[in-house]
Amino acid sequence: MEYTKEFKERDELLRQLEADGLAISDEVEALNFLTRVGYFRSGAYRYVFRQLLPVDQVDERLHQYRQDQYIPGARIDHVMKLEAFDFKLSRVCLEGLLDFEVRVRAAIAHTLAVKDVAAHTLLRCLDTDACGKPVGERTKFDAWMETCQEAVRTGAEDEDFIAHHLLKYPNQPMPIWALTEVLSFGKLPYLFELMQTPDAREVARMFGFAHPRRFGAVLRMMVDFRNTCAHGSRLYNRAFKRPLSIKPHETTSGLLTHLMAPNFTATPKPHQRLYIYAATLAFMLMSHSSGSGWNMTFKTQVKKLDIQLRAPDNSLLISPEISMGFPQNWMDLDLWKPKR
Known about the structure:
The protein contains 14 helices and 4 strands. It has helices at 10-19, 27-37, 39-46, 76-113, 128-132, 140-158, 160-168, 176-182, 188-194, 197-206, 212-230, 274-287, 294-308, 320-323, and strands spanning 50-52, 66-70, 134-135, 138-139. The protein starts with 9 loop residues before the first helix and ends in a 17-residue tail after the last helix.
């Protein structure tokens, strides 16, 4: 199929939106919005205000589910408010993820340092089976050591404590507590998966997980979550690439039990939506010995969606339950209450 869409100036695009039924009360403000975020990106937020196609016109193969026409009462300021809400929500999530990242770095560093200050470089301190698994023509341990060397090399350019160690102790490996400070968050799961089971279990239990294998999978998903937020990508109505599921007995408390029900939310792909990711993050921060009030910060931001996105008759145009995988009455769960 040939691509036939042509470039249009922003004022032309506004006229097209009006023709499709999206009310525009302030053209200057609307033009500023399109200039700031772009017409294409705004489409992700406009999409949920378009009318659904009749069932017999839905094209699953082409992912076509909505008409060009907008629902009655939809205005471009609804779209602008949704984008602003999503931007703030992303910042709130990033705040929690950065907190989690710091805690994971400290937990891994402390647990390994008990065995040896350079435990991350010693096969006797790691899981030999995991280290010996092939990665192309190398082993996982060989690949890990290359990752360490690259982290130290780039870290020396920006961090004085790395340069100091290399100059003062040229033949000694970087201690684990220094390495974890320059290792990217995306590389932490690789180190975690090379840890011996008792050590990995100790780290997992710090964050409320009874079994290291599930925590290792969640750690990778939190990396995806963090990257989505840090790169300014949309959270609203997003389906993450990795499904996150929690099974009975995998956690040390019942705060996530509601996620184990087969129909805990009406949203399609429930295990890939924002709610299950955010709920797991809140659970891990609350389970940590330092505690956290991030769950309340997140709850406060999500509640703002109900206030902002209402039609003239006060009906809610879209809801967290439908768009982001939130269960009904989620705010009444213990997970989203202040920790006593």
